[in-house]
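Annotated sample (chain length 120).
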Amino acid sequence: QVQLVESGGGLVQAGGSLRLSCAASTRTFTNFAMGWFRQAPGKEREFVASISWSGRDTYYADSAKGRFTISRDNAENAVHLQMNSLNPEDTAVYYCAAGPSYTGPTYDYWGQGTQVTVSS
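Output written by the structure step:
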């Protein structure tokens, strides 16, 4: 069982930055690839970024490329999402997830989410 807790969300102006973090409660963190997803009001949840267990491989949605960076600290059982150049379309609840492969499609464990609101 893996428990995931996100933090770092908040209100930011367009063009600003936020760093999301996800803390994992597990002794086997390196068994899991990690991903970030988001869900805006009235929309389906969508993939944002993922990272392999080692941190060597990453994958981004087109909307995140060049603006967001995913990273992980296996010593701290944490994964981060640095978000720069935010725009109002990035407003959503952001979730971290753990699964067997950074290429997906299955993620077995999910956090409760953290709200990100970008004002124009």
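Annotation: The chain has no helices and eleven strands.
Annotation: The mean pLDDT is 97.
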